[in-house]
Design a protein that fits this description.
Blueprint lengths: L24 H63 L4 H20 L2 E3 L11 E8 L7 E6 L2 E3 L2 E4 L1 E7 L8
Parallel strand pairs: 2-6
Antiparallel strand pairs: 1-4, 3-6, 4-5
Helix pairs in contact: 1-2
Length: 175
């Protein structure tokens, strides 16, 4: 039994502050999933921003090229008129020089993506501008004369072709 002569001492344990219980595995997993979801959304937003910035940059470059080419078109038109006038005269050297300049300018514009709008065939209001319609034996609505060439830069109409289109031939009142 117990010996009353021996004191029983109770050793008190030091007071421990109440610490919150560690989170459950489910809580930790849920928090991890929330962080992962937020990170994935941030990554998707950044990817969209990067793609949008690239599209904006391409658009800016296209607009700058378009403005340059638009400014060069009157020069090409002037050279064509000079070539037409030079053909009527005997000054072959002038004609040859102007032709070389015109060829170089045309090649430069083509490298920039400039294409001439075809004007043979039917009138297309998306790429042609009808200045006149004249009675003709040709099919109604077909292009019979080009007043000014039209051009496309990439897939955009830079300047529509200005044309004369065929109208129905006038008939005499004797028919």
């Amino acid at each position: 039994m117990t010996d009353p002569t021996k004191e029983t001492r109770r050793v008190e344990e030091p007071a421990v502050e109440a610490t919150p219980e560690p989170e459950s595995v489910e809580d930790v997993a849920r928090e991890r999933d929330e962080y992962l979801d937020a990170l994935q959304r941030l990554k998707a937003e950044f990817d969209n921003y990067r793609k949008r910035s690239a599209r904006d940059q391409e658009s800016l470059v296209a607009r700058a090229t378009e403005a340059l080419v638009h400014d060069l078109l009157p020069i090409a038109d002037d050279l064509e008129r000079a070539l037409e006038a030079a053909e009527e005269h005997e000054e072959a050297k002038l004609e040859e020089g102007v032709r070389l300049v015109h060829r170089a300018l045309s090649q430069t514009l083509a490298r920039q993506g400039l294409k001439e709008i075809p004007t043979n065939g039917r009138f297309d209001p998306h790429v042609h501008e009808a200045l006149l319609s004249q009675p003709s034996d040709r099919e109604e609505g077909s292009v019979i004369e080009v007043i000014q060439k039209g051009y496309m830069l990439g897939d955009r109409v830079l300047r529509p072709a200005r044309v004369v289109i065929a109208a129905p031939k006038e008939t005499d009142g004797n028919d």
